[in-house]
Each structure stands twice: as C-alpha cells, then as structure tokens.
C-alpha cells in the first residue's frame, strides 16, 4: 500500500516530535498531527518557535524546516483521518484513577475514543498504528472496535511503540537503537508492516528495524521501560547501603558498569526516577501479571516502584534530620522541578513529592527551574497534596533565578540535573545563606570537595557521610 498521507492523533511529547522527524525524512508524505486540545494545536502552529508546547532541544529546527511544507498541525480530526491511509494513535494512556484496576491499570478510554472515531469516519481501508504505550493484547480490542463499528472497510493494526526519551528526543528519533514494528502474521499484516518499514527506511538502517508479532511488540515496550527503571531502583537501593558503609555509589556504579555484561548506562543514582511513563508502565505490568495469576512476577516488578517511593521519602527525611529534626519555617531552596534536565515536563517528578513531604513539616520552599512555569509547579503540587490550594501558595514560591531562591535559605536541594547548576557562583550563594549552609545533591552533580571547601555541608546520594 502506498502511503501519501499520515494522520497522527495526539500532539503531545511523542506525537509532535515523532511526526516532525517522519515528515522531515519523507518530504513526499503529508503528515498531519491532530488533537482535541485547541490551545496545544495553536502553540504548535505558533510563528514564535519559543512558544511550541514542549521544550525539546533541536525540535524547533525540524519544525521550522517541515511545518507548512509537509507537516501540519490541525484540530480537524475527522477530515484528516478520512484523508489518510495510515493513522497513528499517540494519545495519553495514564494510570487509571477510578474503578477496577484503579492506581495500576492503564486508562484506555482515550485510545478507545480514537478507535471509535476512526471507525466512524473511515471510508476506505486504513492502517492503524499504535504509537501510545499499551497493555499487551490491546490491538485485539482496537481491531474489534474498528471491525464492529466501522462501515465494512478493512483495518490493519500495527504496534509501533516509541522509545524516545525526553530531553534527547530528537537524537533518539534520528538514530534510534531500534524501531519496533509488530503486526499480523498474514498477507495483509505483512503488507501493512512493509508500508511502515518503508517510511522508517528513509533514514533508519534496515538492521535497526525489527519486525515481530503484535503481542511481542506491545509487551516489549512495557518490558523495556521496566528494565530501565529496575536498573535505577537497583542502584538507588545500593545508594542507601553506601551511606551506611562508607562506599561511594558513583564509584560502585562505575566499577560494575565497566563489566560489559552489565554496561554503564542507567546506573546513575538519583532522588528517584520520574517522568510520565516508568511508574505507569511498571504498574501496568504489575497489574497484567497479577490479573493473569502471576503473583510472584507481579510482586517482583512492584518492588521497583516501592524502592523508588522509598528513595524520594528518604531524601526528604535526610533534609529533615540534618536540619536538626525541624524544617518548620525554614527556607529550603529547590534547584530544579522538571523530572530530568532539558525538558519542561514535570510529570511524576521527584521534586513534587519531596516538596509535599517538606511542606507537611511546614518548610518554606523556594523553587527555581529554568524551564518550568510557576503555574505548572502549583498545578503539580495541588494535584498531589491533600492541602487546600492556598496553603500550598503559603508554603511555596517560585523565583526567577537560583540566587534569589537560595538567598537566606537554610539548605539547597538539587532535584534536577540542569547543566547550569554546576556553574553557579557557589561562593556567592554560600555567602547569602543561613549557616550552617547545607546542600542536598539529589543528582550528585556537584564536586563534593570543591563545595565543602567553600564551607557548605554537602550531602550527596550514596556518598560517604
Ligand atoms: P501527552 O499527554 O503529551 O499527549 C497526548 C495528547 O493526546 C494530548 O495533547 C491530548 O489532548 C491528546 N488526546 C487525547 N485524547 C484524544 C482524542 N480522543 N483525540 C485527539 N487527541 C487526543 O502524551 P505523550 O507524552 O505524548 O504520550 C503519549 C503516549 O506515548 C503514551 O502512551 C505514553 O506512554 C507514550 N510514550 C511517551 C513517551 C514520552 O517521553 N512522553 C515516550 C514513549 C512513549
Ligand atoms: C523513558 C525511557 O528512557 C524511554 O526509552 C521511553 O521511551 C520513555 O521513558 C517512555 O516510554 O516515556 P524518559 O522518561 O523521557 O524516557 O527519560 P529517562 O531518561 O528514561 O529518565 C527517566 C527518569 O529516570 C528521570 O527522572 C531520570 O532522571 C531518571 N534516571 C535516569 C535516573 O535516575 N538515573 C539514570 O541512570 C537514568
């Protein structure tokens, strides 16, 4: 099947960058990204490239090259579904907050709405591609909805999970470790797989394009995130052991990572992993395993989450105990709010949890983040905490620069590893703080010796105490 027009439903962190790169590498294919969120589409269409709805290094350049040429952002969902031979579903699949599976299973209502919309408006055969991360076997449900509610046209379902990480999305899309495409193991399934392979072949070497059956592809996405997160929880568990024994977790990570069987990536200890996906996808894996009666498998993966929660709480507790068991009315400066550097995404960021725990102890928090807005910070906190909104405003404020955030504070907590934090004028900050001046480096980005020389009391994660 020749693909001339692609429609992607969902103009988020995945839909936007992914389709921008597909359009860049396939100038003869028209790619339209649609969304129900009008404001988001307006932002994607903004002439000022600083106003794109997501911050991702290098994205503005690709948008400048492709937008209006063969990449379009639109609210006209039905028209674009109708006009396209291939439709990607790239909508959010958050953890369910209600009903059966609450707090664990993936909420598939947005995906189902997309399937119903496609069935309703399609007038000819379509290839429907799952780009969202979905529980294994979802393709069967989508196929069922499409076939039962469609007008008799043929729908072929593919699974093409996305592996990009935020902050490095453009590079991850440009040179992916692999592109995974799962499809039906029959003639029409193979034809659909080949059509999608052809699109990626414009820039991805064929040895990096892996084709599988649908269920392997769907499951591999969940397992990939689970393995990555499991490495972080593993090294974070060791960080606590290091603090008790005098070992240094960064030295341990380096030593074990040099074993080529283990490898050095994803062994950086931290205040806990965040982001929209690790927790959600592991919870989903835990839920699926449990639903299938695999209790031991389910418990095994749940431990990754338990350890991550523990790491965040441990960090907050460390601040409390170090500051003589009270932070009430003490100013604590937070450097960073996003869940990692080079993104404005704050979903599940450890900063939110640590702030909430410290506000429970009546601390006054001053936050500086180079990319996250004040509105976002309060939205995050209000969503998590059971406190009334105005109470959070009483205890937290957002500052436009790190120096104002740190001035007169008792302690600095580094929550995000933004590069600019390494090169601050730490002498100036020290002089502006209450003494003793504490630093809790939740990312181990500062040089302990240099910082201690200035006069700070330095606490890194998993560092000798
Ligand atoms: P997002 O929340 O940034 O974007 C989803 C978009 O879908 C929103 O703009 C929303 O308005 C839109 N939407 C929802 N329902 C719709 C509907 N019925 N019709 C039209 N638009 C609709 O989400 P995201 O971060 O882009 O994630 C999307 C999927 O990709 C998720 O399943 C996620 O697990 C997966 N994923 C995310 C990442 C990441 O780094 N964020 C990486 C890999 C995979
Ligand atoms: C992650 C995966 O890396 C992507 O492959 C996947 O596509 C994506 O989830 C997804 O499905 O959404 P992302 O969450 O954007 O990407 O970012 P990561 O770089 O994986 O970082 C996740 C969290 O782990 C961050 O809070 C980060 O600070 C933390 N982390 C990462 C560590 O604490 N230590 C590490 O060694 C690596």
Kindly describe this structure:
With 465 residues, this protein is an alpha/beta fold. 45% of the residues lie in helices and 14% in strands. It contains 18 helices and 14 strands. It has helices at 15-25, 38-44, 59-66, 77-83, 109-121, 138-149, 169-174, 187-201, 214-245, 249-257, 278-291, 295-322, 350-360, 374-384, 389-395, 402-406, 426-432, 448-454; strands at 5-9, 30-34, 71-74, 86-89, 126-130, 155-159, 179-183, 209-213, 331-335, 364-368, 396-398, 411-414, 438-441, 457-460. The protein has an eight-stranded mixed β-sheet with strand order 3-2-1-4-5-6-7-8, with helices on both faces. A six-stranded parallel β-sheet has the order 11-10-9-12-13-14, sandwiched between helices. Strand 9 (331-335), helix 13 (350-360) and strand 10 form a beta-alpha-beta unit. Helix 5 (109-121) runs parallel beside helix 6 and helix 12 crosses helix 13. It is globular, with a radius of gyration of 24 Å. The N and C termini lie far apart (63 Å). Bound molecules: nicotinamide-adenine-dinucleotide and uridine-5'-diphosphate-glucuronic acid. Residues 133, 162-166, 225, 228, 232, 266-268, 270, 273-278, 339-340 line the site of uridine-5'-diphosphate-glucuronic acid.
């Amino acid at each position: 099947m020749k693909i001339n027009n692609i429609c992607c439903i969902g103009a988020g962190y995945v839909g936007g960058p992914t389709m921008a790169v597909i359009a860049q590498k396939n100038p003869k294919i028209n790619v339209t990204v649609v969304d129900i969120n009008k404001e988001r589409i307006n932002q994607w269409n903004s002439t000022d490239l600083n106003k794109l709805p997501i911050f991702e290094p290098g994205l503005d350049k690709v948008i400048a090259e492709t937008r209006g040429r063969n990449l379009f952002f639109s609210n006209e969902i039905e028209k674009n579904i109708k006009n396209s031979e291939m439709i990607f579903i790239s909508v959010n699949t958050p953890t369910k907050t209600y009903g059966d599976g609450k707090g664990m299973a993936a909420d598939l209502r947005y995906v189902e709405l997309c399937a119903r919309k496609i069935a309703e408006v399609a007038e000819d055969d379509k290839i429907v591609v799952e780009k969202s991360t979905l529980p294994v076997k979802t393709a069967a449900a989508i196929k069922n909805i499409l076939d039962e509610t469609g007008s008799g046209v043929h729908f072929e379902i593919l699974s093409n999970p996305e592996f990009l990480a935020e902050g490095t999305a453009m590079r991850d899309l440009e040179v992916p470790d692999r592109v995974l495409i799962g499809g039906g193991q029959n003639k029409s399934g193979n034809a659909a797989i080949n059509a999608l392979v052809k699109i990626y072949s414009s820039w991805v070497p064929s040895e990096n394009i892996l084709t599988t059956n649908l269920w392997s592809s769907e499951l591999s996405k969940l397992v990939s995130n689970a393995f990555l997160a499991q490495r972080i929880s593993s090294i974070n568990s060791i960080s606590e052991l290091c603090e008790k024994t005098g070992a240094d977790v960064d030295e341990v990570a380096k030593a074990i990572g040099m074993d080529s069987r283990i490898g050095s990536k994803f062994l950086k200890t931290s205040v806990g992993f965040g982001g929209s996906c690790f927790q959600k996808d592991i919870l989903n894996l835990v839920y699926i395993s449990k639903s299938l009666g695999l209790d031991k498998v389910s418990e095994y993966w749940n431990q990754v989450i338990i350890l991550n929660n523990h790491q965040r709480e441990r960090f907050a507790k460390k601040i409390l105990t170090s500051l003589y068991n009270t932070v009430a009315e003490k100013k604590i400066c937070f450097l960073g709010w996003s869940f990692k550097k080079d993104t404005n995404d704050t979903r599940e960021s450890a900063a939110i949890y640590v702030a909430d725990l410290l506000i429970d102890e009546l601390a006054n928090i001053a936050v500086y983040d180079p990319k996250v807005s004040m509105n976002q910070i309060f939205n995050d906190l209000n969503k998590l905490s059971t406190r009334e909104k105005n109470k959070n405003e009483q205890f937290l404020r957002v500052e436009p620069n790190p120096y104002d955030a740190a001035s007169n504070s008792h302690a600095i907590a580094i929550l995000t590893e933004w590069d600019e934090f390494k090169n601050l004028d730490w002498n100036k900050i020290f002089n502006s703080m209450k003494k003793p001046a504490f630093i809790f480096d939740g990312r181990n980005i500062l040089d302990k010796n240099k910082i201690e020389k200035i006069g700070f009391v330095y606490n890194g994660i998993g560092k000798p105490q």
